[in-house]
Amino acid sequence: MRGLGNKTPVTNGRTGIKLQLLMRGLGNKTPVTNGRTGSGGYCDNALGAASTTGHGESIMKVLLARLVLQNIQTGLSTQTAAERALEYMEQRVGGAGGVIAINNKGEIGKHFTTERMPWATISEETLEYGIEPKDHYRETMTKS
């Protein structure tokens, strides 16, 4: 699946929140091996998990994924936490990017300041996905 950027399975189950990143970076560079995720993701079972994509240097400078969880910790919704973190990054260092996050209650937030960002979530039997800013498609998944 070359060219899709970060692929981030996140689960929020009985054993807690888990986050796994596969990062390709801009221009389809060699994938980063599992376990060497840099500052692209952050997970804390007490708060949630966030995965980021976009301009890596800007993301590292503001610790974007951690900033999303810090915003959640202050009481913001997962959606607002993602939006505010990206606003801060743009104002502080001029970077663009995207975030998909989940809090410890299973509430999803996603936002991006890039032209587009492929995203998808699965909850129970519902698949939600998009790529363009206004996209929000929903499909019911059937068991085979």
Automatic annotation (TrEMBL):
Name of this chain's protein: Putative isoaspartyl peptidase/L-asparaginase-like
GO CC entries: cytoplasm
Molecular function via GO: hydrolase activity
Domain of life: Eukaryota
InterPro entries: Ntn_hydrolases_N, Peptidase_T2
Family classification: Belongs to the Ntn-hydrolase family.
Annotated source species: Stichopus japonicus
GO biological process annotation, one example: L-asparagine catabolic process via L-aspartate
